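Weekly modeling sync, notes
Attendees: S.R. (lead), two postdocs, one rotation student

Agenda item 3: backlog of single-chain predictions. S.R. asked that every request posted to the team notebook include the full sequence so nobody has to chase files. The rotation student volunteered to paste the first one in as an example of the format we agreed on. Action items at the bottom.

Example entry:
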Amino acid sequence: MGWYSDGMGEYTAVIQWKRDGATFIDNRYSRMHQWRFDGGVEVPASSSPHVVPLPMSVVAAVDPEEAFVASLSSCHMLWFLSMAAKRGFVVEDYRDEAIGVMARNSTGRMAMTLVTLRPAVEFGGERLPAADDVIAMHRDAHEQCYIASSVRTEVRCEPIQSPLQRSTPLG
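Predicted structure, as returned to the notebook:
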């Protein structure tokens, strides 16, 4: 299979939590747990302190809401980098301070209703993209992102333009 195969993939994660002697039925147990991925990475995880108060949540751990926002941002970034490379633009740095908003959805259920990506991209090399090129690459990255295509959440992309980006295309 190639990079852009039409084939399906299967992705796995092992999520493990242990009671560690907590009473449990009083609902005051630690939400700390581990995420393990096929490459061997282990990520400390917990509920969000916005959802479950301290000390049952662990501030230093990743919560599912943060991971959701990060997965959308990461997928968008990876597609953007690929498109920039294919178009001959050298990306030196990419930083996204993405924000997710938890609110009631149209059915009244709590949901991640909006994720706003705020990518700031620095380009290098002799050929710099015009602002229109950058916007087009972000639009195309959004359309290709598997994660954004998989969720009902509104995903917005509001790129932060670098002062080095040209406002007109190269001639």
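Discussion: group reviewed the output briefly. The radius of gyration is 20 Å.
Action items: rotation student to repeat for the remaining queue; S.R. to check formatting next week.
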